[in-house]
């Protein structure tokens, strides 16, 4: 399978990953498109995206440290506590965007994660159901990052 753009990719998850020969291809584009509306994707697709992103961020890809991802997971879990109490803090969800931008400004490797998560965050602010899918996405990315050898 060929990813968007030029170059062949071999990852075992949707064909998006590290270029073996040829120019760098933006592996984030398809995932970002899929995550623009979390209400339209199911758990299977969320798992596929989480695996592909987790692998790409691991040492098999760009080697992003897991604590860069965990910060967003920790904040998302704090928001989840409010959701469980019956309050959906859409403003707090959207405030994840500047936190992500700050991290991307400090660490170049976070920019690929930002490209994927930005549309997911914007969709997550629309409803509690979308937010829960976003949270599962982040949890999955962390899990697959670790599975593919990612470290602190």
Would you write up a description of this structure?
The N and C termini lie far apart (32 Å). With 152 residues, the chain is mostly helical. It has one domain. It contains 7 helices and no strands. The protein has helices at residues 28-34, 43-57, 66-84, 90-94, 96-106, 110-124, 128-147.
Shape: globular
Overall helicity = 55-70%
How many E-type strands? 0
Structural class: mainly alpha
> How far apart are the termini?
32 Å
The helix tally amounts to: 7
Low-pLDDT runs of 5+ residues are 1-24
- Radius of gyration, in angstroms, nearest whole number: 15 Å
Instruction: Give me the strand/helix succession.
Output: HHHHHHH
Oligomeric form of this entry?
single chain
Biggest β-sheet strands, sense, barrel = none
Number of domains: 1
Average pLDDT, to the nearest integer?
82
Strand content: under 5%
């Amino acid at each position: 399978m060929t990813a968007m753009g030029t170059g062949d990719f071999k990852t075992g998850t949707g064909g998006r990953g590290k270029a073996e020969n040829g120019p760098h291809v933006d592996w984030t584009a398809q995932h970002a498109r899929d995550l623009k509306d979390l209400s339209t994707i199911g758990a299977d697709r969320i798992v596929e995206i989480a695996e592909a992103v987790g692998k790409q961020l691991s040492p098999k890809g760009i080697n992003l440290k897991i604590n860069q991802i965990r910060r967003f997971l920790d904040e998302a879990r704090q928001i989840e506590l409010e959701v469980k109490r019956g309050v959906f803090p859409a403003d707090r969800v959207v405030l994840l965007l500047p936190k992500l931008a700050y991290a991307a400004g400090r660490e170049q490797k976070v920019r690929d994660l930002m490209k994927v998560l930005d549309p997911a965050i914007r969709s997550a602010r629309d409803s509690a159901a979308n937010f829960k899918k976003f949270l599962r996405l982040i949890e999955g990315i962390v899990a697959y990052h670790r599975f593919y050898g990612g470290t602190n």
